[in-house]
Amino acid sequence: MLQTISIIALIIGVFSSIIIAIDVYRHPQHMKVMNYVWPINGWFMGPFGIWAYYKWGR
Fold this sequence. Notes:
By secondary structure, the protein is mainly α. It has a domain at about 20-58. It has helices at about 1-25, 35-45, 45-55. Helix 1 packs antiparallel against helix 2. The longest helix is centred in the N-terminal third of the chain and has 25 residues, at about 1-25. It starts with a helix and ends with a helix. The mean pLDDT is about 95.
């Protein structure tokens, strides 16, 4: 059961990271390091990371 939950969480995190990475590629950040930080945050924070990126990062 826990393995299934963790696999689902990883899939959601990777999907969120890909969404953010595509948008960062289209709209690069002013600080170059943030081009790497936002997709990593999306991986660990999932849908909240997408929300945070569109709220504060873009």
